[in-house]
Amino acid sequence: MLDALDKELLKAVADLERIPKGAYNIRKNGKLLGREVSANIDIESNADGTGIVITVKPGTKNESVHIPVILSQAGLHDVVYNTFVVGEDADVTIIAGCGIHCGGSAPEGHEGIHEFRIGRNARLKYVEKHVALGPGKGKRTLNPTTKVFLDEGAYAEMALSQLGGVDEARRLNTAELGPGSAIQITERVMTDGDQRAESRNELLLLGTDSKANIVSRSVVKGNSKQDFYVNLEARAKCYGHIECDAIIMDNGISETVPALKALHPDAELTHEASIGKIANDQLMKLMSLGLTYDESVNRIIQGFLK
Amino acid sequence: MLDALDKELLKAVADLERIPKGAYNIRKNGKLLGREVSANIDIESNADGTGIVITVKPGTKNESVHIPVILSQAGLHDVVYNTFVVGEDADVTIIAGCGIHCGGSAPEGHEGIHEFRIGRNARLKYVEKHVALGPGKGKRTLNPTTKVFLDEGAYAEMALSQLGGVDEARRLNTAELGPGSAIQITERVMTDGDQRAESRNELLLLGTDSKANIVSRSVVKGNSKQDFYVNLEARAKCYGHIECDAIIMDNGISETVPALKALHPDAELTHEASIGKIANDQLMKLMSLGLTYDESVNRIIQGFLK
């Protein structure tokens, strides 16, 4: 059922060597390749056939769902709308990700629009990796959207990364936080060549004692360009923090625009950002340990994106 | 020549108890109240009569110019266009500022549009204070603009403050930095009641080894609102830093939107921001020393805006 290329892509985006344990839904070239549900986690196609609905029963603990997407069909631009309903008190890990293999000159692309409804006191860990491989010159586009709605006391950890090979990305993350809920978003994006990546983030702190923390790590190589926007809007007693760091190499270009909007007197918002080259003293230290220049740079970047 | 009210305003905006030493130009209710030039500093009305041109001779050292504006005429909205030409290697201090006294229900306002051309290796210290006083209910508006052009090796220190009483402010600061030049902007704005203040800052780092540092301190009391924007754009090997801190009290609202644009691979840009209430432990400490709550708050705010 999985050929060698499929396996390479699944390994890259979801650390999968074989069909995963537990619930999963594997999509290849716009079609279902395989699906498994569990006693607590249901996966169904949505009403209009544009994606899937994943429902996690209240109280489900220590379960995971793999929903990787792989794409290797020239000219295909795949769009899916997936909904995740995580029941009260559940604790679940969802591993998503999209791998594109481009062998020719035709463009290939994927857009996953993911909506998360996280119930009271439920916890979600969501991991999403994006990568594009292959010798083809076709444009590879990956435009992910996540929309997170956090009920009272809910928690979401979103680990979002674009590892390389993606020519164009328009990334959008939105979150609405209820009372006592929290979200941690970590986004890591590496671009090279003439690649472009834009990340927009809209975080609405609506509930008392809600917390949002967003960390962005960008590595901008070659002639690539990355733009990062955050709108952190506080409408309650709450805490929000933005941290964005970019390493520029070669002729990379980076723009960072974080907006902090304290619309409530008990809001507490903070921000740190830095954009620059790799520090020379860090390079010198690694090179003095016997690493070459390129090895040292690589080591630092891997650490930065870890 | 100066009545009691004039003196009160001049003291508030320019620390002047009497007519200053050195060059000065005092403007009252849209008209010239007094002018003095020095051997090195010339002041002339501009060609179209809309303001003054202040010319500082190359090499001038340790001289100052006072150019306060006072306003106490109901219904007057005074607009001036002033130009400051600071010659090579000069080192000069310019003390500007505008004080409004409002006694009735008619609005009063002032807009000073100030353009600075700072020659090679010249140094400018520019101090501008804004304040509005008086029992009147008329709307007090102060919309200052500074446009700074820094030649090679030039340095500008801009200390800009709005101390209170101003109902509406649209503040704009722009700077274009040549090679090896540097600018330090410190803006302090306090609002209360239903006051609104907006500060826009556009800093263009054009020259190699140019440096920009902008610090914003906001105190947002009552139902007031402050918006702070920076666009820090790096087009050369350069260094830029933004620091914006806001203290929110009562029902104050604050928005901070700093944009960091690294358009050159050797640009280094950093940013820190925090918006929040006064820390409780700071208050407790002062109150344990015998200060009342209000005294403690006041002490902290004065320190923050110092």
Automatic annotation (TrEMBL), chains A, B:
Residues 82-304 form the SUF system FeS cluster assembly SufBD core domain. GO terms for biological process: iron-sulfur cluster assembly. Pfam families: SUFBD_core (PF01458). SUPFAM superfamilies: Stabilizer of iron transporter SufD. Belongs to the iron-sulfur cluster assembly SufBD family. This is SufBD protein. It comes from Desulfococcus multivorans DSM 2059.
